[in-house]
Amino acid sequence: MSSPCTVTGRIPLQRPLYPFSAIVGQERMKLALLLNAAAPAVGGVLIRGEKGTAKSTTARALAQLLPEIAVRKGCTFACDPARPAEWCAACRDTNRDDSSIVYRRARLVTLPLNATEDMLAGGLDFSATMANGTRAFQAGVLAKAHRGILYIDEVNLLDDHLVDLILDVAESGVNVVEREGLSLRHAARFAIVASMNPEEGSLRPQLLDRFGLCVEVTSEADPAERVQLIERREAFEADPIAFCRTFADEEAALSARVARAREILPTVTLASQLRKYISELAMSRNVAGHRADLVIERASSAYAALEGRDTVNVKDIMEVAEMALRHRSREAVPPPSPPPPDDDNGEESPYRTPPQEPTRTREDGEASPPPAAFPSGSQDLSNQQERQGGFGPAAADALFSIGEVFRVRRLQPVEDRLARRGSGRRIRTRTADKQGRYVRSRDNSGGQDAARDIAIDATLRAAAPYQISRRVATGRDTVVIRRQDWREKVREKRIGSFILFVVDGSGSMGARGRMAASKGAIMSLLLDAYQKRDRLAMIVFRRREAGLLLPPTSSVEVAGKLLREMPVGGRTPLSAALVKAHGTLEPQLLKDPNLRPLVIFITDGKANVPLDERNRPMEEALRLAGHIGIDSRVRWIVVDTEERTGVCFGLARRIAAALGGEYYSIDDLKASHLVGVIKGL
Amino acid sequence: MKQRNVYPFAAIAGQERMKTGIMLTVINPSLSGILIRGEKGTAKSTAVRGLAEILPLLEVIRDCPFHLAPDEGGDCCTECRNGSCRDRRLNGKPAETVKRKIAVVELPVGATEDRVVGTLDLEQALQQGVKYFEPGLLAAAHRGILYVDEVNLLDDHVVDVLLDSAAMGVNTVEREGISYTHPARFTLVGTMNPEEGELRPQLLDRFGLCVNVEGSRDTAERVEIMERRATFEEQPEVFAAKWEETSRELAASVVAARDRYISVRVEKQHLFDIASYCIDVGVDGHRGDIIMLKTAKTLAALHGHTTVTSNDIEEAAQYALPHRVRRQPLQDIIQDVSQVRRAARKNIEGEKNAAGKLL
């Protein structure tokens, strides 16, 4: 068998990277990256910012500035010759003199979003295994990143199980591989550099805390800088090699500065009173844990080293402290969302509060409650409302602006292990079609349909050990694969869910700015639905009936538009709403029995229009709710819009109980109430 | 094999902005693709096919799975099963080449990632036990056009991969035990119907250009469209012959623009115009500026001059900025960029006046 690899035939595909020193502006980001290049112990950087702000370009450009490290020739794990305890088998075997030591730049390894687990952690080397009949390990991304930097673009979109793996390895510094019959461990110490656009969703707090530093980037507001930026980019694209040459001196100087910083870093000292200052700084910002202190200490030492000094002063600490505290602090730094009303420091927020619409909006429900609203102290709602003659004129309808928009807590439909089809990001599910991330393989040699989605690599790996004996047995000299080797791919992906909004548009919702707050809540839920790629539908009930305002769609934009234009006024036909909701869900569930819809019922629960004139509205609604709530596939969430102050009726809570669903007030929906501010990042 | 008849590009009535947009990306693939937003049945794919048909033939290496040009090479050649051209080249001989039309590769919505980026060659793996790379659609689209219908319905990470390749001109595969790089410079044309949901902002931003199309509202034009289509379907050859002259001129202008692009110059003042335009309408990040400059230069090349004029810049904004203007959450993409700018300008002026009065 001839190997297809001919190293001599390599015709390189040259593509120079944009030079680090040619990046205009973005000083904080550049500093944070340089600190990591000089001192990997700083623990990585998270770069947050809007799209198109050179996040990835800068991170990739850093690769050219990383200092040289000593490695042994032929070692695939980049073992440190100075640490014999961590040596891999190859390093231990070679003679231990210095002749086999070579120097190369530390690597910046990019983790593609579509990476599989065995690419990340390493797996069985297919070619070597096939060729030699012995198990050989193919190093993964984590091994390549050892003593260098692991770069993750759009880290907030990375699959959770990969994130867990990376965190685990980053924490311990060792990658333990126990899979596919392989069992080995190798050192993997790296700094994580990651970028994300907060518009696309948040990051788990555990992951957030793993990053030593965090910087925010925004686009330049100065036209002159922008012009310089486009000029440089143009010049680079016109002739990358010539462009890089013009920056060669600066690059070399910067590279030398980083290398020098690494050299003097061990000698940098930090006075003990400064150490005290650091911990006070961290405490004043209410930082959880001690990692911030440690990071500031290391980063300020790195800063001093980059400046060529061997003692840290207060200025160094001030320079780096903000970057280390920003994502850990529970106060002081305004949380990324929601933007506080007095947000005047230009903080970029993923959600900009929609503008008020003063022209056709009554800002404040209190100032002019729509006539149909009943006094909030009334006891017998239904009857009183009946007598009041809720047939208010159309002129009683009011429009309310969208209130405060916030980040919502995690809402998930009922979880299970069913395989389904679809796309999105709300629920993780096994997928039945051939899409989705190939997470692992399983032995399906006896199953029906076994050949439908074969995991070739796993199949071959399963067959590989028997090849020599089988070849002898069959007399063929190709790979012999038996049915018992067949492995099937297990795929998993997140899919969106179906969310039905049932919104109370009755006059009672107009009171005390309740509608504005409710619209804010719905808007928040819509944004969340967008990020998770859900399909939506919206029912609005008011006056005598409930209408399907928005038939099932994926367009969150349309839903947002309808929400803005939704009028309020009239009575509360709660029963009709329940029936309509049921009627909307039914065909969806018929179409896809595996669907697990989420119904978000936004009301104050003050039912006053029955379906059947003879029934009392509230009793009827509760009875219906009990009936509809039987289907366990649907998860009901009742959001109570009733004010907590004054007299509470708790009617929405009763509805929720009858539906067998959950009950929240608008405030409960806010993610910040659950896990503190850092979750918001 | 009988040639399938393609409706001539030049014979498409109306849809000027879409036609120009497609031509711009064909002239300058570094614009990294065009997103066409609009209803069904607005000649989107007809335009793409029609244009590919009339463009000059490409010279490619014979049997090259990556459609490389004679002077191209790369990592992909080392593990390519077509060893003959590699051997010839290593021996200093030029590779054999053939000429062929520009490929229009269609990416179906259900496409899996392995089909898009390429994967392990199963047959070779099983029979020979060797690891060969089976090229995917990105390799097929190299130097051609990749047409993605309903791009908003594609899996997010497939779109990611597409845009990555479109921007870098290289496809990097790291999966299932293969690690591979091959050139993939293609013109990306994506279409979507906004009613079915938006693209993620990050992805939206990475499409260089964006045009909105809608069916013509003009009765006369609609009649014209129907008539042309009917004539084409009755006698495609005759119809094509009738438009051949116009088509040839069009193709020539594209080729000329491609050559001229390198020599197009921009005055400093115009760079400031671009930057202030982007600041005025509120564009996130800097990609808008860069793409707008490139678009203006490409437009200048297409219009036959070698310096960018203010008109080019104004026109470039219509292509490069609509999808980049900062929006309220869940707001629709704006239709008219210059209107936004006028409004923004007015605001600024208003503020200045107010400030003046106060002082």
Fold blueprint:
The complex is a heterodimer of chains A (681) and B (359).
Chain A: H1 27-38, E1 45-49, H2 55-61, E2 68-72, H3 89-93, E3 101-105, E4 108-111, H4 117-121, E5 123-124, H5 126-132, E6 137-138, H6 141-144, E7 149-152, H7 160-172, E8 174-179, E9 182-187, E10 191-196, H8 205-210, E11 213-217, H9 223-238, H10 240-246, H11 248-264, H12 272-284, H13 291-306, H14 314-325, H15 381-388, E12 398-399, E13 419-420, E14 427-431, E15 437-443, H16 456-463, H17 467-474, E16 487-495, E17 498-504, H18 514-531, E18 535-542, E19 545-553, H19 556-564, E20 567-568, H20 574-591, E21 598-603, H21 617-628, E22 635-640, H22 651-659, E23 662-665, H23 666-669, H24 672-675
Parallel strand pairs in A: 1-10, 1-11, 4-7, 7-10, 13-14, 17-18, 17-21, 21-22, 22-23
Antiparallel strand pairs in A: 2-3, 5-6, 8-9, 12-20, 14-16, 15-16, 18-19
Helix pairs in contact in A: 1-11, 1-13, 9-10, 11-13, 12-13, 12-14, 13-14, 18-19, 20-21, 21-22
Chain B: H1 16-27, E1 34-38, H2 44-54, E2 58-61, H3 75-78, H4 83-90, E3 97-100, E4 104-107, H5 113-117, E5 119-120, H6 122-127, E6 133-134, H7 137-140, E7 145-148, H8 156-168, E8 170-175, E9 178-183, E10 187-192, H9 201-206, E11 209-213, H10 219-234, H11 236-261, H12 268-281, H13 287-303, H14 310-320, H15 337-358
Parallel strand pairs in B: 1-10, 1-11, 4-7, 7-10
Antiparallel strand pairs in B: 2-3, 5-6, 8-9
Explained architecture:
Chain A starts with 26 loop residues before the first helix and ends in a 6-residue tail after the last helix. In chain A, 35% of the residues lie in helices and 17% in strands. In chain A, the strands form 7 sheets. Chain A has a 6-stranded mixed beta sheet with strand order 19-18-17-21-22-23, with helices on both faces. In chain A, strands 4-7-10-1-11 form a 5-stranded parallel beta sheet. In chain A, strands 13-14-16-15 form a 4-stranded mixed beta sheet. The radius of gyration of chain A is 31 Å and the shape is globular. With 681 residues, chain A is α/β, with parallel strands linked by helices. In chain A, β17 (498-504), α18 (514-531) and β18 (535-542) form a beta-alpha-beta unit. Chain B folds into 2 domains: 9-57 and 101-259, Rossmann fold (3-Layer(aba) Sandwich), CATH 3.40.50.300; 264-358, Magnesium chelatase subunit I, C-Terminal domain (Helicase, Ruva Protein, domain 3). Chain B has helices spanning 16-27, 44-54, 75-78, 83-90, 113-117, 122-127, 137-140, 156-168, 201-206, 219-234, 236-261, 268-281, 287-303, 310-320, 337-358; strands at residues 34-38, 58-61, 97-100, 104-107, 119-120, 133-134, 145-148, 170-175, 178-183, 187-192, 209-213. Chain B is globular. In chain B, β8 (170-175) and β9 (178-183) form a beta hairpin. By secondary structure, chain B is α/β, with parallel strands linked by helices. Classes of the chains: A alpha/beta (681), B alpha/beta (359). The interface between A and B is large, with 84 and 75 residues.
